[in-house]
Amino acid sequence: MSLDLCLANLQRIVGVADLLVTIDLESGYGTDPTAVGETVARELQTGAVGCNVEDSFPENGSLREAYDQAAQLKAREPQRMHSKSWPS
Fold first, then answer.
1. For labeling, which of 25, 30, 43, 67 is most exposed (least CB within 10 Å)?
2. What confidence score (pLDDT) does residue 54 get?
3. Which phi and psi angles does 18 have, rounded to 5°?
4. The predicted structure's pLDDT at residue 78
5. What is the DSSP code (8-state) at residue 27?
6. Phi/psi at 31 (nearest 5 deg)?
7. 54-65 pLDDT tens trace
8. In three state form, how does the secondary structure of 49-70 look?
């Protein structure tokens, strides 16, 4: 599924759900930390509250090096601050 279709589906779900919504973004729809960070920023613009990103490559299932996965997590951190707050 393309990222655009994925996010369009997510936005439709967020628009009708009375619950907080998260999404599995596979491998982040990017090959480097900057691209994954941009994907997460777009995901949060839909109104979703967060996501999970795999630590493997979709083409062969091999795991990313720990350093590379840490860089992807770091690239996503600024976007986390723009997500919705949990209800009190």
1. 67
2. 80
3. -95, 10
4. 56
5. T
6. -100, -5
7. 877 778 888 888
8. CEEECCCECCCCCCECCHHHHH
Which residues contact residue 42 at a Cβ distance below 8 angstroms, ignoring those fewer than 6 apart? 3, 7
Domain extents in the chain: 3-80
Look at residues 33, 5, 10, 32 and name the one whose alpha carbon lies nearest to residue 22. Answer: 10
Q: Is 31 helix (H, G, I), strand (E, B) or coil?
A: coil
Length of the chain (residues) = 88
- C-alpha to C-alpha distance for 73 and 36, rounded to whole angstroms: 9
Are the C-beta atoms of 86 and 20 separated by less than 8 Å? yes
d(CA 86, CA 47): 12
Residue found under tokens 């967020």: 14
The one-letter code for the residue type at 81 is: M
